[in-house]
Amino acid sequence: MQWIARDHAGNFFEQNLDWAFLRWSIQNDVDIRLGRLGVGVFSLSDYRNISYAYPWIRPPHEFYSTIPYYHIDGADITKKFSIDDGYLSIKLYGGYSYNQLPTQSSGVNNQQSPATGANISYEKGAWQARLGYTYATITSNPPIQDLLTPINSPLFTQYWPDIKQLIPAMTMRGKEYHFGSIGLAYDDGIWLSQMEAAYIASNTLWSPPRSSAYLSIGRRISTVTLYSLLGIAKTFQNDVNVPNPLVPNPTLLAYQRQFSRTLNNNGINEQSVSLGTRWDFYNNMALKAQWSHYWLGAHNGSQQWQQSVSNTTPNTVNVMSVGIDFVF
Amino acid sequence: MSCLWVLILYFNAMKIFTALLLFFVTASESHAEIVVIGNVKNNIQSLNSAQVEDIFMGRTRSLPNGHFVLPVCQSTLRPEFYQKLTTKPIEQINAYWAMLAFRGQISQPIEYPDDNSVLSVINENRDAIGYIDSRHINNSVRVLLRLN
């Protein structure tokens, strides 16, 4: 069982329970797990909060902050094969995800989606490679009542009928996600390198299709690791064109601007470079310091940087972090 | 002439420096031979270092004969054992095990404080394997691999 104290949207106790499962080893190389599981789509899926286990101060932001959920309630089965001095493992999983996500406007989005997927990884010597795929459908709608109420009002119906065309794009129920990812890691004890690239296909307006990737290279000198990290994330979606009202009434025009702002605030356009160091100064303890510089381009909305909708996004952000990790 | 003196002095200084360096490097390394041991009732006669590494790095949960393995560590020898087996320092091994543990895949080998307690665990469990200082081997266990 793993429970993590963090400031998460929604129910503090329920949402922070990342894992609670039973594992059953039916054979030496076959495992079945049942319960609440980490979603194993990406390399760090199961331990992205356990920063002692990786060199950086936090998982690469471009890549790991775009993953809409942490855990699923379901089951997985893993089989390991020994091939040519290496190990191949295949995992299949399925379940139901219930995640409470913060939203732009107000309130929490209770997102429910059945998800199923598979991943294959191969480990040989200093190398590790993995491929992952997950398919999820969304069975709930986001809290967009404050947009739908005016759209369905008699005033809008009479003077702005075209606005109803937007409703199908704003709903989420029945829409789909496809997550695909590849990863490669190398660690010979002195040099370490890790990269992952992902594409998330989706047909929802609130979470547009995107690709993201990172590359990290590090070198260990005794108990000190120096590393660099590059990250990139970008969404692919054309701006939603909010149709004009029949009469240029100031109230309706204000609504038009607001709709346009809200509906077009979901893009991601981010790149970053980080330099950092990890020092294993004591048994099971590590001190880390990292400097990151982020570039936020055009159409970078509030997906990865929480902010009030009225604020303009800054172009660059510098983040300096220092932390101590320990395990016991 | 003075130039030659400087060179001679320089070479002598380097010799002393190298000797000192060698002294400290070798003094800090202990010379215990570590042996990987198993139960005598087990039909395994020996293991190679890749097989031992797979077991102690959590890549496999079984012995070559298919039995579920019970690996045990000896706390004081653990850093040296992993250094000899994998060439990686203990900090990396600990971070690696933290990752495996939090993936919920496999538990870390149980640690015992000294060679005697490792010997008794090996005696009591047919599928246990562990490691001790070679000076403490007795007839109740079988040596599967020697790590120098």
Secondary structure layout plus pairing:
The complex is a heterodimer of chains A (about 325) and B (about 150).
Chain A: E1 2-3, H1 12-15, E2 17-27, E3 30-38, H2 61-64, E4 71-83, E5 86-102, E6 108-124, E7 127-137, H3 145-151, H4 154-159, H5 167-170, E8 176-187, E9 191-202, E10 210-221, E11 224-235, H6 250-263, E12 269-282, E13 285-296, E14 316-326
Antiparallel strand pairs in A: 1-2, 2-3, 3-4, 4-5, 5-6, 6-7, 7-8, 8-9, 9-10, 10-11, 11-12, 12-13, 13-14
Chain B: H1 2-28, E1 34-39, H2 49-56, E2 70-74, H3 78-86, H4 90-102, E3 110-112, H5 115-124, E4 128-133, E5 141-147
Parallel strand pairs in B: 2-3, 2-4
Antiparallel strand pairs in B: 1-4, 1-5
In short:
The complex is a heterodimer of chains A (328) and B (148). Chain A is mainly beta and 328 residues long. Chain A is 12% helix and 50% strand.
Structural features, described:
- The complex is a heterodimer of chains A (328) and B (148).
- Chain A is mainly beta and 328 residues long.
- Chain A has one domain (2-326): Porin (Beta Barrel).
- Chain A has helices spanning 12-15, 61-64, 145-151, 154-159, 167-170, 250-263; strands at 2-3, 17-27, 30-38, 71-83, 86-102, 108-124, 127-137, 176-187, 191-202, 210-221, 224-235, 269-282, 285-296, 316-326.
- Chain A is globular, with a radius of gyration of 22 Å.
- The mean pLDDT of chain A is 85.
- In chain B, 45% of the residues lie in helices and 18% in strands.
- Chain B has helices spanning 2-28, 49-56, 78-86, 90-102, 115-124, and strands at 34-39, 70-74, 110-112, 128-133, 141-147.
- The termini of chain B are far apart.
- Chain B has a 5-stranded mixed beta sheet with strand order 3-2-4-1-5, sandwiched between helices.
- Chain B is α/β, with parallel strands linked by helices.
- Chain B is globular.
- Chain B has 2 domains: 1-30; 34-147, Periplasmic binding protein-like II (D-Maltodextrin-Binding Protein, domain 2).
- Chain B contains 5 helices and 5 strands.
- Chain A binds chain B through residues 2, 19, 21, 23, 25, 28-29, 31, 33, 37-38, 46-47, 50, 52-54, 78, 80, 82, 85, 87, 123, 187, 189, 220, 222-223, 280, 283-284, 286, 327, and chain B through 50, 54, 59-62, 66, 68, 86-92, 94-96, 98-99, 102-105.
